[in-house]
């Protein structure tokens, strides 16, 4: 352990050697927040240059979680790439599954049955709820409200049980596949979803009763981390962060996919652009997602849950055991993959964090030539320095939490 007197002398010397601020009286100090700080929500390093408790400059150091996922796609078959998408944003696995699948289905010109489309919508909206619950619980915990975290984890557990019933996995589900779904929806799925979604709106009321008019919460979030809308657009900020600044841009409405045009829901927008406005937008988004899930549940079409494409979709296991043609298709898809016509496509979806895009290039073989992701956390994180420079050090925690970034989504 360091000698306290020696440590004090080192800090004093560092401050003495630091250049004087304006007026010659203030001294600047560089502080590393992260990469192990709990409030960075992952391995992020923020280098803060301080004058007293005021942030003069902020620089971001990313890449600690870089996994090379984009390059790894190039040695996988198209279907083998699905589990990689789970690991980009581990709180929105199904959103990434969906975006990747939609891009390849465009290249294949594959028609997806209505039941599979509606089931996809229901599951990605449950994913949005799952993600927003983790965000709200951890954000409130950062600011000092512990009870909210416990409440949010209670509901999140119900969602994870639903995912486990569908896919056998709680987190990395890989359930949305090219051509439809990985497995037939389990028996009793509708009762499980109905029990959850009927009770959920009252749970959101509980979260709001703890925070929305809480004087400490208001003091820590109102007027904090405001950036001009033009700057947010230049930085590539999307999702709830841009909607909280007055821009009602949501891919589900502007460029509907997977039958979103058949659902009735609103896009929450706020004008203030501060931490509190981002909180309000996401809370209302939870209510709207619950509304979409309920519509999907009540209007779920009948029919197949996979496309009629034996050269792409694995055959039913019972058919594989009794029909030679099905066995051959199964063998070839598993061992060789399937060919995708030459071309390129860019597909976007609205993930819990904002605009998620997959740029996919095929050279006509069974493996992608290139897969590049436009991840929303990367753009949103770029806005952090503009939000905190000139503000107090304590506001950094509230600002970071309000962005709801995932470092896997940033680094890939």
**Strand residue percentage:** 5-15%
Give the CATH topology.
Cytochrome-c3 Hydrogenase, chain B
Shape descriptor reads globular
Counted by DSSP, the helix tally is: 18
- Percentage of residues assigned to helices: 40-55%
The CATH architecture classification is: Orthogonal Bundle
Series of secondary-structure elements, N-terminal to C-terminal = HEEEHHHHHEEHHHHHHHHEEEHHHH
Rg from alpha-carbon coordinates: 24 Å
Average pLDDT rating: 90
Q: Strands of the largest sheet, in order across it?
A: 1-2-3
Distance between the termini: 37 Å
Largest sheet: 3 strands, antiparallel
What is the fourth-level CATH superfamily?
Answer: Cytochrome-c3 Hydrogenase, chain B
User: What is the chains' assembly state?
Assistant: single chain
Low-confidence stretches: 1-18, 20-25
How many structural domains in the coordinates?
1
In the CATH scheme, the class would be Mainly Alpha
The total count of strands amounts to 8
* Helix/sheet category: mainly alpha
Overview of this structure, please?
This protein has 412 residues and is mainly α. It has a single domain, classed as Cytochrome-c3 Hydrogenase, chain B (Orthogonal Bundle), CATH 1.10.645.10. It contains 18 helices and 8 strands. 42% of the residues are buried.
């Amino acid at each position: 352990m360091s000698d306290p007197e020696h440590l004090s002398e080192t800090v004093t010397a560092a401050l003495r050697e630091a250049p004087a601020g304006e007026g010659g009286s203030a001294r600047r100090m560089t502080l590393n927040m992260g990469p192990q700080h709990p409030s960075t929500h992952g391995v992020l390093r923020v280098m803060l240059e301080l004058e007293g408790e005021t942030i003069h400059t902020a620089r971001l150091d990313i890449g600690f979680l870089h996994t090379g996922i984009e390059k790894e796609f190039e040695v996988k078959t198209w279907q083998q790439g699905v589990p990689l998408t789970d690991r980009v944003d581990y709180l929105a696995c199904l959103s990434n599954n969906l975006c990747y699948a939609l891009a390849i289905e465009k290249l294949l010109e594959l028609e997806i049955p209505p039941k599979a489309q509606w089931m996809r919508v229901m599951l990605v909206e449950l994913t949005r709820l799952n993600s927003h619950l983790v965000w709200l619980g951890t954000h409130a915990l950062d600011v000092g409200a512990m009870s909210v975290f416990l409440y949010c984890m209670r509901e999140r557990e119900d969602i994870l049980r639903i995912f486990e019933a569908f896919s056998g996995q709680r987190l990395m589900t890989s359930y949305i596949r090219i051509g439809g779904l990985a497995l037939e929806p389990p028996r009793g799925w509708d009762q499980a979803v109905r029990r959850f979604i009927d009770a959920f709106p009252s749970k959101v009321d509980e979260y709001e009763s703890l925070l929305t008019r809480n004087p400490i919460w208001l003091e820590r979030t109102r007027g904090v981390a405001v950036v001009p809308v033009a700057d947010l657009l230049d930085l590539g900020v999307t999702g709830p962060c841009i909607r909280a600044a007055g821009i009602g841009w949501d891919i589900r409405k502007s460029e509907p996919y997977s039958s979103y045009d058949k659902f009735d829901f609103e896009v929450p927008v706020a004008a203030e652009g501060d931490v509190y406005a981002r909180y309000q937008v996401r809370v209302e988004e939870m209510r709207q997602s619950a509304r979409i899930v309920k519509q999907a549940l009540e209007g779920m079409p009948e029919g197949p849950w996979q496309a009629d494409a034996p050269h792409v979709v694995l055959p039913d296991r019972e058919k594989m055991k009794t029909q030679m043609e099905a066995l051959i298709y199964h063998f070839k898809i598993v061992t060789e993959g399937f060919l995708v016509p030459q071309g390129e496509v860019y597909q976007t979806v609205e993930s819990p964090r904002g605009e998620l895009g997959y740029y996919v290039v095929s050279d006509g073989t069974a493996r992608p030539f290139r897969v590049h992701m436009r991840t929303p956390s990367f753009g949103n994180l770029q806005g952090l320095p503009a939000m905190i420079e000139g503000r107090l050090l304590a506001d950094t925690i509230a600002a970071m939490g309000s962005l709801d970034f995932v470092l896997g989504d940033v680094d890939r």
